[in-house]
Structures are given as structure tokens and as C-alpha cells.
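Fold sample X.
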Amino acid sequence: MSPATPKDDASRVRRRDEIATAAIEVLATKGFRGLTHRAVDEAAGLGPGSVNYHAPTRSRLLHLALGQLFARDFEVAGATFGSLVDVKPLTADVVVSRIVDFIQAMTTGDAAKRVIARSIMLGEAQHDREVRELFDTQRGAFVTYAQWIAASLDSQDPQAEAETLVVMIEGLIQRQVLIGSRLPRSLVEQMLRTIIGSSPLIAD
């Protein structure tokens, strides 16, 4: 057997990404019971049995989907918040606007499907320790990311304020996708200002 080449490795990574994206699509449109290897084959446009090669078990399929989901979410977070510490002066209006940008990015298009898929997998995490650990790790990384932002803003208690910020963002994202009609941007901004406007998170 000839050794694998970088091209072969890249092809496998690309195929796993395609499968993970298809699994998220299936979860978002068909629910957890609809997550079968056959359904993911079809969603990915692959022949029958193709998914089995990369994800022979349902657990492995979930892990691929979660990895893809978390990676895409962090890309959105990085694009939205990455330059925040360079904004001078940093005001409540700037922070509120950037958070609302992030919420909108996370609740439209493919990102909205990830929100639905995440909520479904989070329910499964209550009964699957490995899936729960993946969620805990991902959320911990996001809190750490928020804590870095808070610390960069001379926060007096970065850990507590980062946790508060993440809880607030998570709740608004779920509200926009999973609960009734969407709130207008102006109302979301007003809701955030009632918290952020009076918080020591904002450095004048």
C-alpha cells in the first residue's frame, strides 16, 4: 500500500467537512431522529454508504457535526469581535453594535441552521457524556474569549462579566431563531443597553 500524500489528506479533510455540514443540515431540517447515515449521504450528494467510511457510528457523526459547528461559530466571533480592542474610544454604543452584528450573523442563513442543530444536540448532551464534554469545552473557550475582551477593556471582574456577556448573547441568539418572530435590531440594541450601558465592562 502506498503512503498517503498531502493531497489525499486534504481530500479526506474536505470530505469530512462536507459530511459534517450535511449532518448539520439534516439535524436542522429533520431533527435528531432524522440523523441517519443515509440522510447525510443524500444531503451531501454522496453515494450510499459514503458517510460510513468517515463516520462509521452515529456518535462519530455527531462529533464531526459539532466540530464543524463550533469552528464556524468561532469564525463568526473572530470576524465580529477580533478588532474590538483596537477601537478607541470604546463606548457602550460600539460594544452594543458589535454584539448585535454578531447576533444577526449567528441567526441568519446557514448560521441559523447551526443554532437549531446545536439546540438539538444540546438535548442529546444531557444523555451522552462525551457530547456534553464537547459542549462544555466549546462554551468554556467562548467564555475565555469573552474574558479576554473584558480584560482588554480594563474590566474589574473579567470572569464574572464574561460569563454574563456569554449568557446574554446565547439567550438572544436562541430568542431570535427558536422563539416566535424575530425582534427588530433597535429593540435588541435597547435590551443590551439596559445591561451594558451601566456595566463596568465598558471602559470610558
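Fold sample Y, listed below.
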Amino acid sequence: MDPELEAFLPLFPRSDLTDPVAERGKLARLAAAVPPPDTTDMKIEDRTVTADPQVPVRIYRPHRARGAIVWLHGGGFVMGDLDTEHPWAARLAAGSGAVVVSVGYRLAPEHRFPAALDDAYAALAWTAEHAAELGIDPERTAVGGHSAGAGLAAAVVLRARDQQGPPVRLQILNQPELDDRQETWSARNFTDTPWMTRDKVAATWRHYLGSTPATPYAAPARATDLSGLPPAYISTAEFCPNRDEGITYALRLLQAGVSVELHQWPGTFHGSQAILSADVSQRQIAELAAALRRALAE
């Protein structure tokens, strides 16, 4: 493990997600401890997407932005909100120069699949419909997220393809949670890795799916046809149960004719880029923003 990251391991609380509501408080405290981003050169506004039910979004608007990304926070489908994602959404907007539409989707187990997906897709449709108001080109829209949010992003672009929805320029899948089956090598063997373990991943899927059988819109790794999807930037962490499903998904996209940039970060673990003082975390954040900037400038 990267020694700069290893020094912070005692600060990451242990949890098994048996009580998601209690875990939300832990995540909020961790997010509050992250150094605040510089937001002086952007406008930040809370809005509501008209849907059933309505979806809260927080919009980050840098000066002279040309494109946008619908951004979906992590948290295993059960944790996270607009406030916990604020440090990352603001940094993404600053680093990429894109409008970031951060989505406060509904959480499991109170709201199981497909509630979060419906909210995320409504946010994509809203962003496309309000492109002129946001000052962006509607053809320059991306979708992305961290962890479970990355899994939702993959599902959103599958649904947009299948339903001839808004065009998506790029999908950003950062340490994506894509496969409820947990059959990969990393999913089977990483039982005691920092922050995210095999058992914890299994708990997130139980909360998200309940008794509903998984479909490709719930677990995109189950999709049999990945053709016609937008290009992807996929990043994985070395010591993460989700590592191999992210790499496998990248390979399957390539085999389906989809352009992919894949980055496997050595010495990292799931969520470790929150340790901003580490050089590898700074490079991860900068490269993610750069990938978005390049895609929206093309």
C-alpha cells in the first residue's frame, strides 16, 4: 500500500452497514473533515428537478463552462448526499471547467432500486432540457460518479442508449460498483481491505435490491450488450473488492467497440483519494478532471 495512505488507515471507521442510517452520520463526519475546496471562481446553486418525486441537485458553474456532467455521489447506495459530495463536486468543477450537476438521489433501504436510477436519469434529462439556462452545449454532457454512484452512472448511460435519451459525451466510472454477483477474484479475496470489504459490498447490494432480482439497470455488469455506449474513463483502486469488475467492464466495453481510458491506481484502496495530502490522491483527482475537460472540449 502507498505509505502516504497507510498512515491514515486508523482514521477510517470500521462498519458493516447493518445500520445504514447510523453509517450516514459517520460519512458526513468524514466529509466534513476534508479540507474545503476553493469555490471563489464559481457559482453554486441548489435547485430541484421536477420529477415524481422531485430530485434535489446542487449546480457548480465555473466561468465560461461549455459542457456539463451529471455527477452521482458514492456511499454504497445507502449513504451520501449533496453535502458529503460537496468537496469532490466543487473540485471536479474547478479542475475540469465543466458545470457539475450533483444529484441528491434517494437512498436505500428506504428507497430501493430503481429509485436512485430514476432520480439520476431525471437529472440527466433536466440538464439536457436546461442547457441554454446553464450556458452549455447540450451535446457536451457527461455522466459520472464514485463507487455506487459510478454504478448508477453506468446504468444511466445504458438507459439513455436504450430509450434514445439525451446524448452523453463521456461516462466517468471511478471505482465503480457494477456487479452484485461478487464472483471476481478481488470480490472473493478482499475480505479485510480498508473502508470497503467483500461483506460490506454484499450488504450494500442487499439494501439496494431487497428481494428484487438484479437487472442490467441495477447491476450494469449483467448487461449483455455494451455496444453503442459513450466513451468511458474508468479508474480502479488496487486494494478494492470492486477492482476486477471495473477492469472487466472496461475490457468488455472495448470489445464492444467503445473507447475506454482505464487507470488502475497502485497502492490505493476504495475511497483513499479522500486523503488529499497523498501525492497519488492528488494525481487521481487531477486526471479525472482532465479526462472530463478533454472529452467536453472535443
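Sample Y note: Residues 279-297 form the longest helix (19 residues).
Also: The chain is about 40% helix and 20% strand.
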